[in-house]
Amino acid sequence: MPIITYREALNQALREEMARDDRVYIMGEEVGVYNGAYKVTKGLLEEFGENRVVDSPIAELGFAGIGVGSAMAGLRPVIEFMTWNFALLAIDQVVNSAAKMLYMSGGQFNVPIVFRGPNGAALQLGAQHSQAFESWLAHIPGIKVVSPGTPYDAKGLLKSAIRDDNPVVVLEGEMLYNTKGEVPDHEYLIPLGKADRKRTGTDCSIITSGKMALVAMQVADLLAKEDIHIDVIDLLTIRPMDVEAIYESVRKTQRAVVLEEGWEVCGIGAQVVDYIQRECFDHLDAPVLRVHQADVPMPYAKGLEKIAKPDVAKTIAAVKQVMYRT
Amino acid sequence: MATTKKKTSIKCEPVAVRTVGDPALDRELLQSMLLQRRFEEKVGEAYALGKIGGFCHLYIGQEAVSTGIIAQLRPDDYVIGTYRDHGQALVRGVAPRAVMAELFGRIDGCSRGKGGSMHMFDRHTNFLGGHGIVGSHVPLAAGVGFAIKYRGGDQVIVCFMGDSVVNIGAFHEALNMAALWKLPVLFVIENNRYGMGTPVEKAAAVDDLSRRADGYTGMDGIVVDGMDVHAVCEAAARAIARARTESRPSLLEVRTYRFRGHSMSDAVSGTYRSKDELDEYQSYDPIFSLRDAMVLASTMTVAEWEALEAEVAATVQDAWDFADASPEPPPAALYEDVLVDTTS
Ligand SMILES: Cc1ncc(C[n+]2csc(CCOP(=O)(O)OP(=O)(O)O)c2C)c(N)n1
Ligand SMILES: [Mg+2]
Fold first, then answer.
1. Residue range A10-60, pLDDT digits in tens
2. Model-level pTM?
3. Residue B262 and residue B196: Cα distance in Å, rounded?
4. Ligand 1: which of B196, B254, B256, B259 to mutate, most ligand atoms within 8 Å of CB?
5. Residue ID of nearest Cα to ligand 1 atom 5
6. Which of the 8 DSSP states describes residue A97?
7. Furthest-apart CA pair in chain A: how many Å?
8. Residue B65's closest CA among B148, B189, B179?
9. Neighbouring residues of B168: CB distance < 8 A, sequence distance ≥ 6
10. Interface predicted TM-score (ipTM)
11. Using the 8-state DSSP alphabet, how is residue A120 labeled?
């Protein structure tokens, strides 16, 4: 199987879907001539022309709304946010327009749109450029939220997101764009709403998504050497969440750690823990623990940033704690 | 008469004496405006009886705007607007029964009872909704214009908005891109002089709202007297033709006035505006001034007017009866329409 980067996988997904359906277009800052701030749209302008690869002004609220309006009139926009930090300026169009249109029109106007871009922290970008918005977005009924961690998942999920007739948020990762993985030559889709077991084990579950799936796999590989076998459940789609996959895993392992990139308070992990306590209470041998970012804006200083982020060491410590091994 | 901007006063300066036009057309315009008026009066009654809940914004006084502008559209064109949307829905051709049932929160409402007063939608007439967040629908309108152009079509979209919208970011972002990309959009400011209780001159650092267009190359800014339905028709026809044939957006400021409070909980006058001011504007009533001009010009008899009133009253009563008899959405509807389960 060819090995390509996460960036190339997304690029392939966009190219294939634009070739397949001429209602699909991409709009955002620097997506055309510049080839994308992170080069995800490289070559698309050349291939599809400026009608379908549209460089917008720096006006997130405006072009997100243009995307929604065009979707109501039958197009299938892919709106690229240079990063999700900037998408906060457009959150009104995501929450009040895209997510509400079908419901408040009594089922008449669906909004087939993809909002995508890098989410979460990279390295030393400081407080305003290092935020993970999974829980903000997953809170909203009326949209789907996916968060791929590998090139394979990125391509399959983005293709499904573009074909979905609902608004779909795709949370990518700046630190993921250069990571590599196997992606088949043939066409494939990954269904939205289905988790993927990234490692199989019977001792403890780690429930996670996105960039943190890579951390969880590292943790599983390291702990395997200590004869601790982790079941890694990569949610892939955060809304709607594949709760059955969580239940199945936790009923088997009877212990769980929930790992996420964002902040603790009202985070994705809080929701997962709630599902577990309601449905797997009798199976649990230890309280479920959470690993997440420190409850502070992201600092710039290298050392501080490192200790603010969830990582392999913190996750291993949490796993050992739920296994009562120290 | 439509004048191309450069008026200094923010006040609308209507003329009391109206011109008449083609008698058949005038009758249609009159009928369209009267239907909105009597419908909205009925809505006020239903609200007082508790049959309608939530926020409800009446359009009384502004009828010439929707009538004059929507009359210039083709069936395949699009209309989008704000929460003050009952009149526009009716003029666009959404059945009075469906609008009233929506207000009553019933299953036969145009949004199946899920939208309410502020969110009228109708796919059949390309009525893209009443939107409740000030300014948010203006980019949506530009997006529809983008889709039209993307497909190489010759439709247009009309975007109705209140006067306070010209001060919010979404408006400027949308107008900038509409002008930049030459999108077939007619942006209509219904300047009724107030955003809730705030007069325009306390909110906008521009003395003539249509001048907002000056910031966007290729966009015409136009002012028209919104109490004169003929003037509205004429200005809208030109701007819509420009959008259709040259794919150029325009900003049309229509000077009008609302005769009722901002919403049902707002007093008609006495706080932010005086009774005298209200009386003055009511003397420019777009419906009665046209009626009087027609009677004066003998293009309509008093008996014909009375027949029109009776016809409209029957339509409105029928809408009420229909809405009242329509069932509430069943509990199962709660979880419907959150997501569609299809892919393309
Ligand atoms: C972004 C936003 N802020 C505040 C409100 C509350 N609000 C609803 S209508 C309104 C006044 C709008 O006035 P205008 O645009 O002149 O329209 P009109 O009501 O006169 O038709 C306000 C402040 C809102 N709906 N959206
Ligand atoms: Mg107003």
1. 999 999 999 999 999 999 999 999 999 999 999 999 999 999 999 999 999
2. 0.96
3. 5
4. B196
5. B134
6. I
7. 60
8. B189
9. B134, B135
10. 0.97
11. B
